[in-house]
Amino acid sequence: MGYPAPSKRETALLRALGTRQGRRKSSCCRCEGVRAVRELLEFFPENVLFCVGTEKGLGQISFDPQKLRELPEHLFNDISGTVSPQGIIAVAEVPVAPEDVAGDFIFALDGIGDPGNFGTIARSCRAAGVRELWYSAGTVDPWSDKAVRSGMGAQFGLSLRGFASLDELLSTAAEKGYGTFFYADPHGGESCFTAPGLYDRSVVIIGGEPSGSHVERAQSINIPMPGNYESINAAQAATVLIFEYVRRLGQKQ
Amino acid sequence: MGYPAPSKRETALLRALGTRQGRRKSSCCRCEGVRAVRELLEFFPENVLFCVGTEKGLGQISFDPQKLRELPEHLFNDISGTVSPQGIIAVAEVPVAPEDVAGDFIFALDGIGDPGNFGTIARSCRAAGVRELWYSAGTVDPWSDKAVRSGMGAQFGLSLRGFASLDELLSTAAEKGYGTFFYADPHGGESCFTAPGLYDRSVVIIGGEPSGSHVERAQSINIPMPGNYESINAAQAATVLIFEYVRRLGQKQ
Hints:
Helix content of chain A: 25-40%
Largest interface: A-B, 39 and 39 residues
Oligomer: homodimer
Number of strands of chain A: 11
Protein backbone atom coordinates (compact mmCIF):
# COMPACT_ATOMS: atom_id res chain seq x y z
CA MET A 1 0.00 0.00 0.00
CA GLY A 2 0.95 3.57 -0.43
CA TYR A 3 2.56 3.82 -3.85
CA PRO A 4 1.29 6.51 -6.18
CA ALA A 5 -0.91 5.63 -9.13
CA PRO A 6 0.76 5.88 -12.53
CA SER A 7 0.67 9.38 -14.00
CA LYS A 8 -1.51 10.11 -17.01
CA ARG A 9 1.56 9.93 -19.19
CA GLU A 10 2.63 6.61 -17.74
CA THR A 11 -0.87 5.22 -18.19
CA ALA A 12 -0.92 6.36 -21.79
CA LEU A 13 2.47 4.71 -22.37
CA LEU A 14 1.28 1.49 -20.74
CA ARG A 15 -1.70 1.35 -23.05
CA ALA A 16 0.27 2.30 -26.14
CA LEU A 17 2.69 -0.58 -25.54
CA GLY A 18 -0.07 -3.02 -26.35
CA THR A 19 0.49 -2.23 -30.04
CA ARG A 20 3.53 -2.70 -32.26
CA GLN A 21 3.35 0.91 -33.34
CA GLY A 22 3.30 2.09 -29.73
CA ARG A 23 6.34 0.00 -28.92
CA ARG A 24 8.24 1.27 -31.92
CA LYS A 25 7.47 4.89 -31.18
CA SER A 26 8.56 4.70 -27.55
CA SER A 27 11.29 2.03 -27.82
CA CYS A 28 9.73 0.41 -24.80
CA CYS A 29 7.85 -2.79 -24.05
CA ARG A 30 5.71 -4.31 -21.33
CA CYS A 31 6.70 -7.33 -19.30
CA GLU A 32 3.86 -8.94 -17.37
CA GLY A 33 3.65 -11.60 -14.68
CA VAL A 34 5.48 -12.28 -11.44
CA ARG A 35 8.14 -14.61 -12.78
CA ALA A 36 8.94 -12.64 -15.92
CA VAL A 37 9.15 -9.34 -14.02
CA ARG A 38 11.39 -10.90 -11.37
CA GLU A 39 13.78 -12.18 -14.03
CA LEU A 40 13.80 -8.79 -15.68
CA LEU A 41 14.51 -6.99 -12.39
CA GLU A 42 17.26 -9.44 -11.53
CA PHE A 43 19.15 -9.30 -14.79
CA PHE A 44 18.23 -6.00 -16.40
CA PRO A 45 17.03 -3.56 -13.71
CA GLU A 46 18.55 -0.61 -15.53
CA ASN A 47 16.12 -1.09 -18.42
CA VAL A 48 13.03 -0.90 -16.24
CA LEU A 49 11.36 2.51 -16.18
CA PHE A 50 8.65 1.62 -13.68
CA CYS A 51 6.47 -1.22 -12.43
CA VAL A 52 2.71 -1.02 -12.14
CA GLY A 53 0.90 -3.44 -9.89
CA THR A 54 -1.85 -4.21 -7.49
CA GLU A 55 -0.95 -4.17 -3.81
CA LYS A 56 -0.56 -7.95 -3.97
CA GLY A 57 1.46 -7.90 -7.19
CA LEU A 58 3.87 -5.26 -5.96
CA GLY A 59 4.37 -7.30 -2.79
CA GLN A 60 5.84 -10.11 -4.87
CA ILE A 61 8.73 -8.18 -6.36
CA SER A 62 11.47 -6.02 -4.91
CA PHE A 63 12.57 -2.88 -6.74
CA ASP A 64 13.36 0.80 -6.23
CA PRO A 65 10.24 2.12 -4.42
CA GLN A 66 10.49 5.34 -6.42
CA LYS A 67 9.64 3.35 -9.51
CA LEU A 68 6.58 1.53 -8.18
CA ARG A 69 3.04 2.50 -9.15
CA GLU A 70 -0.08 1.08 -7.60
CA LEU A 71 -3.53 0.45 -9.01
CA PRO A 72 -6.64 -1.14 -7.56
CA GLU A 73 -7.33 -4.55 -9.04
CA HIS A 74 -10.14 -3.57 -11.38
CA LEU A 75 -8.08 -0.80 -12.97
CA PHE A 76 -5.01 -3.03 -13.21
CA ASN A 77 -6.97 -5.85 -14.85
CA ASP A 78 -8.27 -3.36 -17.37
CA ILE A 79 -4.69 -2.68 -18.51
CA SER A 80 -3.46 -6.26 -18.27
CA GLY A 81 -2.84 -8.18 -21.47
CA THR A 82 -3.46 -11.60 -19.90
CA VAL A 83 -6.52 -13.67 -19.11
CA SER A 84 -5.38 -14.33 -15.54
CA PRO A 85 -3.56 -11.16 -14.43
CA GLN A 86 -0.94 -11.64 -11.71
CA GLY A 87 -1.04 -8.00 -10.71
CA ILE A 88 2.35 -6.86 -11.98
CA ILE A 89 3.66 -5.25 -15.18
CA ALA A 90 7.08 -3.72 -15.79
CA VAL A 91 7.63 -1.08 -18.43
CA ALA A 92 11.13 -1.36 -19.84
CA GLU A 93 13.29 0.24 -22.48
CA VAL A 94 14.10 -2.08 -25.35
CA PRO A 95 17.90 -2.42 -25.57
CA VAL A 96 19.71 -1.39 -28.73
CA ALA A 97 21.86 -4.18 -30.14
CA PRO A 98 25.56 -3.21 -30.14
CA GLU A 99 27.05 -2.54 -33.57
CA ASP A 100 29.49 -5.43 -33.31
CA VAL A 101 28.19 -8.87 -34.09
CA ALA A 102 29.49 -11.37 -31.54
CA GLY A 103 29.82 -15.09 -31.12
CA ASP A 104 30.44 -18.21 -33.15
CA PHE A 105 27.24 -18.08 -35.14
CA ILE A 106 23.99 -16.25 -35.74
CA PHE A 107 20.67 -17.92 -35.07
CA ALA A 108 18.08 -16.65 -37.54
CA LEU A 109 14.30 -16.92 -37.55
CA ASP A 110 12.27 -16.58 -40.70
CA GLY A 111 8.50 -16.42 -40.55
CA ILE A 112 8.11 -17.56 -36.94
CA GLY A 113 4.58 -16.36 -36.33
CA ASP A 114 3.99 -17.50 -32.78
CA PRO A 115 5.14 -15.11 -30.03
CA GLY A 116 5.35 -17.96 -27.51
CA ASN A 117 7.79 -19.76 -29.81
CA PHE A 118 9.85 -16.61 -30.20
CA GLY A 119 10.10 -16.20 -26.43
CA THR A 120 11.03 -19.83 -25.91
CA ILE A 121 13.74 -19.61 -28.57
CA ALA A 122 15.09 -16.44 -26.93
CA ARG A 123 15.37 -18.29 -23.62
CA SER A 124 17.20 -21.18 -25.24
CA CYS A 125 19.63 -18.76 -26.94
CA ARG A 126 20.32 -16.95 -23.71
CA ALA A 127 20.81 -20.17 -21.74
CA ALA A 128 23.21 -21.45 -24.38
CA GLY A 129 25.19 -18.22 -24.58
CA VAL A 130 24.12 -17.55 -28.17
CA ARG A 131 23.93 -13.79 -28.37
CA GLU A 132 22.87 -13.06 -31.93
CA LEU A 133 19.21 -13.79 -32.62
CA TRP A 134 18.20 -12.31 -35.95
CA TYR A 135 14.81 -12.37 -37.61
CA SER A 136 13.25 -11.42 -40.89
CA ALA A 137 9.86 -10.17 -41.97
CA GLY A 138 7.00 -12.47 -41.14
CA THR A 139 8.44 -13.15 -37.72
CA VAL A 140 6.49 -11.80 -34.78
CA ASP A 141 7.52 -8.66 -32.94
CA PRO A 142 10.03 -9.92 -30.33
CA TRP A 143 8.77 -7.25 -27.92
CA SER A 144 5.06 -8.04 -28.00
CA ASP A 145 3.48 -8.77 -24.63
CA LYS A 146 3.32 -12.47 -25.23
CA ALA A 147 6.83 -12.80 -26.68
CA VAL A 148 8.34 -10.95 -23.70
CA ARG A 149 6.29 -12.99 -21.24
CA SER A 150 7.35 -16.28 -22.83
CA GLY A 151 10.93 -15.08 -23.07
CA MET A 152 10.99 -14.22 -19.36
CA GLY A 153 13.06 -11.22 -20.29
CA ALA A 154 15.69 -13.27 -22.19
CA GLN A 155 15.31 -10.84 -25.11
CA PHE A 156 17.04 -8.16 -23.06
CA GLY A 157 20.23 -10.22 -22.97
CA LEU A 158 20.40 -10.85 -26.71
CA SER A 159 21.37 -8.87 -29.78
CA LEU A 160 18.08 -8.96 -31.64
CA ARG A 161 18.26 -7.63 -35.18
CA GLY A 162 15.32 -7.45 -37.54
CA PHE A 163 15.47 -7.38 -41.35
CA ALA A 164 12.99 -6.68 -44.10
CA SER A 165 13.79 -9.98 -45.79
CA LEU A 166 15.85 -13.09 -45.27
CA ASP A 167 18.02 -12.06 -48.23
CA GLU A 168 18.88 -8.83 -46.51
CA LEU A 169 19.61 -10.71 -43.29
CA LEU A 170 21.96 -13.13 -45.03
CA SER A 171 23.75 -10.37 -46.93
CA THR A 172 24.32 -8.40 -43.73
CA ALA A 173 25.59 -11.52 -41.98
CA ALA A 174 28.04 -12.20 -44.82
CA GLU A 175 29.33 -8.62 -44.61
CA LYS A 176 29.97 -9.13 -40.92
CA GLY A 177 31.98 -12.26 -41.61
CA TYR A 178 29.27 -14.87 -41.09
CA GLY A 179 29.38 -16.28 -44.57
CA THR A 180 28.07 -19.86 -44.50
CA PHE A 181 24.34 -20.45 -44.23
CA PHE A 182 22.42 -23.49 -43.04
CA TYR A 183 18.69 -24.01 -42.85
CA ALA A 184 16.73 -26.62 -40.98
CA ASP A 185 14.91 -28.71 -43.54
CA PRO A 186 12.29 -31.20 -42.35
CA HIS A 187 12.69 -33.21 -45.52
CA GLY A 188 16.38 -33.80 -45.98
CA GLY A 189 19.92 -32.59 -45.68
CA GLU A 190 22.82 -33.66 -43.52
CA SER A 191 22.17 -34.54 -39.89
CA CYS A 192 22.59 -31.55 -37.58
CA PHE A 193 24.54 -33.84 -35.27
CA THR A 194 27.30 -34.43 -37.80
CA ALA A 195 27.23 -31.55 -40.33
CA PRO A 196 30.68 -29.95 -40.28
CA GLY A 197 31.12 -26.23 -39.68
CA LEU A 198 27.56 -25.78 -38.53
CA TYR A 199 28.45 -23.16 -35.93
CA ASP A 200 31.61 -21.81 -37.50
CA ARG A 201 30.98 -18.16 -38.42
CA SER A 202 27.67 -19.23 -39.87
CA VAL A 203 23.98 -18.42 -39.91
CA VAL A 204 21.58 -21.20 -38.84
CA ILE A 205 18.04 -20.54 -40.06
CA ILE A 206 14.79 -21.93 -38.69
CA GLY A 207 11.44 -21.50 -40.41
CA GLY A 208 10.70 -19.94 -43.72
CA GLU A 209 8.97 -20.93 -46.88
CA PRO A 210 10.06 -24.23 -48.42
CA SER A 211 10.76 -22.32 -51.63
CA GLY A 212 12.37 -19.27 -50.04
CA SER A 213 15.69 -17.70 -50.86
CA HIS A 214 17.45 -19.66 -48.12
CA VAL A 215 16.96 -22.81 -50.15
CA GLU A 216 19.21 -21.39 -52.86
CA ARG A 217 21.76 -19.68 -50.69
CA ALA A 218 22.05 -22.12 -47.79
CA GLN A 219 22.88 -25.77 -47.12
CA SER A 220 20.09 -27.90 -45.72
CA ILE A 221 20.48 -29.67 -42.41
CA ASN A 222 18.09 -32.06 -40.80
CA ILE A 223 17.11 -32.99 -37.27
CA PRO A 224 16.89 -36.77 -37.38
CA MET A 225 13.49 -38.08 -36.22
CA PRO A 226 13.58 -41.85 -35.96
CA GLY A 227 9.96 -41.82 -34.82
CA ASN A 228 8.94 -40.92 -38.37
CA TYR A 229 6.65 -38.28 -36.96
CA GLU A 230 7.98 -34.96 -38.11
CA SER A 231 6.00 -32.72 -35.96
CA ILE A 232 8.11 -30.98 -33.37
CA ASN A 233 7.41 -27.28 -33.36
CA ALA A 234 9.79 -24.48 -34.29
CA ALA A 235 10.77 -23.81 -30.68
CA GLN A 236 11.69 -27.45 -30.10
CA ALA A 237 13.66 -27.64 -33.35
CA ALA A 238 15.48 -24.43 -32.44
CA THR A 239 16.33 -25.78 -29.01
CA VAL A 240 17.83 -28.93 -30.50
CA LEU A 241 20.02 -26.87 -32.84
CA ILE A 242 21.03 -24.39 -30.13
CA PHE A 243 22.06 -27.10 -27.68
CA GLU A 244 23.90 -29.05 -30.35
CA TYR A 245 26.09 -25.95 -30.45
CA VAL A 246 26.61 -26.21 -26.68
CA ARG A 247 27.54 -29.86 -27.02
CA ARG A 248 30.13 -29.16 -29.71
CA LEU A 249 31.51 -26.30 -27.64
CA GLY A 250 32.12 -28.73 -24.77
CA GLN A 251 33.99 -31.08 -27.09
CA LYS A 252 36.40 -28.33 -28.13
CA GLN A 253 37.51 -27.71 -24.57
CA MET B 1 -24.20 -29.38 -44.22
CA GLY B 2 -26.32 -32.33 -43.55
CA TYR B 3 -24.67 -34.30 -40.80
CA PRO B 4 -26.79 -35.23 -37.78
CA ALA B 5 -26.37 -33.43 -34.48
CA PRO B 6 -24.66 -35.44 -31.74
CA SER B 7 -27.07 -37.63 -29.79
CA LYS B 8 -27.90 -36.78 -26.19
CA ARG B 9 -25.48 -39.47 -25.07
CA GLU B 10 -22.70 -38.13 -27.28
CA THR B 11 -23.31 -34.61 -26.06
CA ALA B 12 -23.17 -35.77 -22.44
CA LEU B 13 -19.89 -37.59 -23.16
CA LEU B 14 -18.44 -34.52 -24.88
CA ARG B 15 -19.20 -32.41 -21.84
CA ALA B 16 -17.99 -35.01 -19.34
CA LEU B 17 -14.62 -35.18 -21.09
CA GLY B 18 -13.87 -31.67 -19.89
CA THR B 19 -13.10 -33.14 -16.46
CA ARG B 20 -10.48 -35.63 -15.35
CA GLN B 21 -13.12 -37.77 -13.71
CA GLY B 22 -15.17 -37.85 -16.89
CA ARG B 23 -12.15 -38.92 -18.90
CA ARG B 24 -11.27 -41.67 -16.43
CA LYS B 25 -14.78 -43.03 -16.34
CA SER B 26 -15.14 -43.25 -20.11
CA SER B 27 -11.49 -43.90 -21.08
CA CYS B 28 -11.92 -41.25 -23.74
CA CYS B 29 -10.58 -37.77 -24.37
CA ARG B 30 -11.33 -34.75 -26.54
CA CYS B 31 -8.99 -33.48 -29.22
CA GLU B 32 -9.78 -29.97 -30.47
CA GLY B 33 -8.57 -27.84 -33.34
CA VAL B 34 -8.03 -28.41 -37.05
CA ARG B 35 -4.38 -29.37 -36.93
CA ALA B 36 -4.59 -31.65 -33.90
CA VAL B 37 -7.68 -33.45 -35.25
CA ARG B 38 -6.04 -33.89 -38.64
CA GLU B 39 -2.96 -35.48 -37.05
CA LEU B 40 -5.17 -37.73 -34.98
CA LEU B 41 -7.22 -38.82 -38.00
CA GLU B 42 -4.07 -39.45 -40.02
CA PHE B 43 -2.22 -41.55 -37.48
CA PHE B 44 -4.86 -43.00 -35.17
CA PRO B 45 -8.22 -43.03 -36.97
CA GLU B 46 -9.25 -46.26 -35.24
CA ASN B 47 -9.28 -44.48 -31.87
CA VAL B 48 -11.72 -41.81 -33.00
CA LEU B 49 -15.33 -42.46 -32.00
CA PHE B 50 -16.79 -39.39 -33.68
CA CYS B 51 -16.03 -35.80 -34.66
CA VAL B 52 -18.26 -32.87 -33.80
CA GLY B 53 -17.94 -29.66 -35.72
CA THR B 54 -19.50 -26.67 -37.30
CA GLU B 55 -20.18 -26.82 -41.03
CA LYS B 56 -16.90 -24.97 -41.59
CA GLY B 57 -14.90 -27.09 -39.16
CA LEU B 58 -16.13 -30.37 -40.64
CA GLY B 59 -15.18 -29.08 -44.08
CA GLN B 60 -11.55 -28.96 -43.02
CA ILE B 61 -11.12 -32.61 -42.18
CA SER B 62 -11.82 -35.83 -43.99
CA PHE B 63 -13.20 -38.82 -42.11
CA ASP B 64 -15.85 -41.50 -42.24
CA PRO B 65 -19.10 -39.52 -42.81
CA GLN B 66 -20.93 -41.93 -40.49
CA LYS B 67 -18.88 -40.53 -37.64
CA LEU B 68 -19.44 -36.85 -38.27
CA ARG B 69 -21.79 -34.74 -36.15
CA GLU B 70 -22.75 -31.18 -36.90
CA LEU B 71 -23.66 -28.28 -34.63
CA PRO B 72 -24.46 -24.64 -35.32
CA GLU B 73 -21.66 -22.33 -34.27
CA HIS B 74 -23.21 -21.04 -31.07
CA LEU B 75 -23.83 -24.53 -29.74
CA PHE B 76 -20.39 -25.70 -30.78
CA ASN B 77 -18.69 -22.76 -29.10
CA ASP B 78 -20.58 -23.56 -25.93
CA ILE B 79 -18.92 -26.98 -25.83
CA SER B 80 -15.49 -25.83 -27.00
CA GLY B 81 -12.67 -25.68 -24.45
CA THR B 82 -10.74 -22.97 -26.29
CA VAL B 83 -10.92 -19.20 -26.45
CA SER B 84 -10.88 -19.18 -30.26
CA PRO B 85 -12.76 -22.31 -31.36
CA GLN B 86 -11.84 -23.71 -34.77
CA GLY B 87 -15.07 -25.60 -35.12
CA ILE B 88 -13.82 -29.16 -34.76
CA ILE B 89 -13.47 -31.64 -31.88
CA ALA B 90 -12.72 -35.34 -32.08
CA VAL B 91 -13.74 -37.72 -29.32
CA ALA B 92 -11.27 -40.56 -29.08
CA GLU B 93 -10.60 -43.63 -27.00
CA VAL B 94 -7.49 -43.36 -24.90
CA PRO B 95 -5.16 -46.22 -25.89
CA VAL B 96 -4.10 -48.77 -23.27
CA ALA B 97 -0.33 -49.08 -23.03
CA PRO B 98 0.82 -52.60 -23.96
CA GLU B 99 2.09 -54.70 -21.07
CA ASP B 100 5.60 -54.93 -22.49
CA VAL B 101 7.90 -52.01 -21.90
CA ALA B 102 9.83 -51.21 -25.07
CA GLY B 103 12.84 -49.26 -26.13
CA ASP B 104 16.27 -48.25 -24.90
CA PHE B 105 15.09 -46.07 -22.04
CA ILE B 106 12.09 -44.62 -20.25
CA PHE B 107 11.49 -40.90 -20.15
CA ALA B 108 9.84 -39.94 -16.87
CA LEU B 109 8.07 -36.76 -15.78
CA ASP B 110 7.67 -35.83 -12.14
CA GLY B 111 5.55 -32.86 -11.15
CA ILE B 112 5.18 -31.34 -14.63
CA GLY B 113 2.19 -29.12 -13.97
CA ASP B 114 1.74 -27.45 -17.33
CA PRO B 115 -0.38 -29.34 -19.89
CA GLY B 116 1.27 -27.45 -22.77
CA ASN B 117 4.66 -28.72 -21.61
CA PHE B 118 3.34 -32.26 -21.37
CA GLY B 119 2.02 -32.10 -24.91
CA THR B 120 5.26 -30.67 -26.25
CA ILE B 121 7.29 -33.38 -24.52
CA ALA B 122 4.97 -36.03 -25.96
CA ARG B 123 5.62 -34.66 -29.45
CA SER B 124 9.38 -34.72 -28.91
CA CYS B 125 9.21 -38.32 -27.66
CA ARG B 126 7.17 -39.42 -30.61
CA ALA B 127 9.42 -37.66 -33.12
CA ALA B 128 12.48 -39.23 -31.53
CA GLY B 129 10.99 -42.71 -31.42
CA VAL B 130 10.96 -42.79 -27.62
CA ARG B 131 7.89 -44.86 -26.80
CA GLU B 132 7.81 -45.00 -23.01
CA LEU B 133 6.69 -41.74 -21.40
CA TRP B 134 5.96 -42.31 -17.72
CA TYR B 135 4.74 -39.81 -15.16
CA SER B 136 4.11 -39.64 -11.47
CA ALA B 137 1.63 -37.81 -9.26
CA GLY B 138 1.76 -34.06 -9.54
CA THR B 139 2.05 -34.30 -13.29
CA VAL B 140 -0.92 -33.07 -15.30
CA ASP B 141 -3.42 -35.44 -16.84
CA PRO B 142 -1.89 -36.31 -20.24
CA TRP B 143 -5.39 -36.50 -21.71
CA SER B 144 -6.68 -33.09 -20.67
CA ASP B 145 -7.93 -30.88 -23.50
CA LYS B 146 -4.87 -28.69 -23.46
CA ALA B 147 -2.34 -31.52 -23.18
CA VAL B 148 -3.92 -33.34 -26.13
CA ARG B 149 -4.10 -30.14 -28.17
CA SER B 150 -0.43 -29.32 -27.50
CA GLY B 151 0.56 -32.91 -28.14
CA MET B 152 -1.20 -32.88 -31.53
CA GLY B 153 -2.21 -36.41 -30.79
CA ALA B 154 1.35 -37.62 -30.09
CA GLN B 155 0.07 -39.17 -26.87
CA PHE B 156 -1.77 -41.80 -28.90
CA GLY B 157 1.52 -43.14 -30.24
CA LEU B 158 3.22 -43.50 -26.85
CA SER B 159 3.04 -45.90 -23.95
CA LEU B 160 1.95 -43.49 -21.24
CA ARG B 161 2.03 -44.96 -17.75
CA GLY B 162 1.03 -43.06 -14.62
CA PHE B 163 2.18 -43.83 -11.06
CA ALA B 164 1.11 -42.66 -7.63
CA SER B 165 4.68 -41.67 -6.78
CA LEU B 166 8.09 -41.43 -8.36
CA ASP B 167 9.29 -44.20 -6.06
CA GLU B 168 6.64 -46.49 -7.42
CA LEU B 169 7.57 -45.49 -10.96
CA LEU B 170 11.25 -46.24 -10.40
CA SER B 171 10.55 -49.57 -8.72
CA THR B 172 8.33 -50.67 -11.58
CA ALA B 173 10.97 -49.61 -14.09
CA ALA B 174 13.62 -51.60 -12.24
CA GLU B 175 11.38 -54.67 -12.26
CA LYS B 176 11.02 -54.32 -16.01
CA GLY B 177 14.80 -54.22 -16.42
CA TYR B 178 15.32 -50.46 -16.54
CA GLY B 179 17.52 -50.27 -13.50
CA THR B 180 19.68 -47.14 -13.73
CA PHE B 181 18.12 -43.77 -13.00
CA PHE B 182 19.20 -40.28 -14.02
CA TYR B 183 17.59 -36.98 -13.18
CA ALA B 184 18.12 -33.60 -14.77
CA ASP B 185 19.59 -31.33 -12.13
CA PRO B 186 19.88 -27.61 -12.91
CA HIS B 187 22.62 -27.25 -10.32
CA GLY B 188 25.17 -29.93 -11.05
CA GLY B 189 25.95 -33.44 -12.19
CA GLU B 190 27.65 -34.78 -15.25
CA SER B 191 26.97 -33.21 -18.64
CA CYS B 192 24.12 -34.91 -20.46
CA PHE B 193 26.29 -34.79 -23.57
CA THR B 194 28.97 -37.06 -22.09
CA ALA B 195 27.33 -39.05 -19.25
CA PRO B 196 27.86 -42.74 -20.06
CA GLY B 197 24.94 -45.15 -20.16
CA LEU B 198 22.39 -42.39 -20.13
CA TYR B 199 20.01 -44.21 -22.44
CA ASP B 200 21.05 -47.77 -21.69
CA ARG B 201 18.07 -49.53 -20.06
CA SER B 202 17.61 -46.47 -17.88
CA VAL B 203 15.03 -43.99 -16.64
CA VAL B 204 15.69 -40.31 -17.38
CA ILE B 205 13.67 -38.04 -15.08
CA ILE B 206 12.67 -34.42 -15.63
CA GLY B 207 11.09 -32.26 -12.95
CA GLY B 208 10.40 -33.10 -9.36
CA GLU B 209 11.24 -31.60 -6.03
CA PRO B 210 14.91 -30.83 -5.43
CA SER B 211 14.69 -32.97 -2.31
CA GLY B 212 12.62 -35.76 -3.83
CA SER B 213 13.33 -39.46 -3.76
CA HIS B 214 15.01 -39.32 -7.17
CA VAL B 215 17.89 -37.42 -5.58
CA GLU B 216 18.73 -40.45 -3.49
CA ARG B 217 18.05 -43.15 -6.03
CA ALA B 218 19.30 -41.51 -9.22
CA GLN B 219 22.45 -39.96 -10.66
CA SER B 220 22.28 -36.29 -11.48
CA ILE B 221 22.93 -35.07 -14.99
CA ASN B 222 23.12 -31.51 -16.18
CA ILE B 223 22.32 -29.66 -19.37
CA PRO B 224 25.27 -27.30 -19.79
CA MET B 225 24.21 -23.66 -20.09
CA PRO B 226 27.19 -21.50 -20.94
CA GLY B 227 24.95 -18.42 -20.93
CA ASN B 228 24.73 -18.70 -17.14
CA TYR B 229 21.00 -18.20 -17.41
CA GLU B 230 19.40 -21.37 -16.20
CA SER B 231 15.92 -20.75 -17.28
CA ILE B 232 14.87 -23.02 -20.08
CA ASN B 233 11.54 -24.60 -19.32
CA ALA B 234 10.81 -28.27 -18.71
CA ALA B 235 9.72 -28.89 -22.30
CA GLN B 236 12.94 -27.43 -23.68
CA ALA B 237 15.08 -29.39 -21.23
CA ALA B 238 13.19 -32.56 -22.12
CA THR B 239 13.71 -31.93 -25.82
CA VAL B 240 17.46 -31.53 -25.34
CA LEU B 241 17.64 -34.85 -23.46
CA ILE B 242 15.38 -36.66 -25.91
CA PHE B 243 17.37 -35.55 -28.96
CA GLU B 244 20.69 -36.30 -27.29
CA TYR B 245 19.37 -39.86 -27.36
CA VAL B 246 18.75 -39.54 -31.09
CA ARG B 247 22.27 -38.21 -31.61
CA ARG B 248 23.85 -41.11 -29.74
CA LEU B 249 21.66 -43.55 -31.65
CA GLY B 250 23.08 -42.19 -34.90
CA GLN B 251 26.62 -42.70 -33.64
CA LYS B 252 25.98 -46.36 -32.93
CA GLN B 253 25.00 -47.07 -36.50
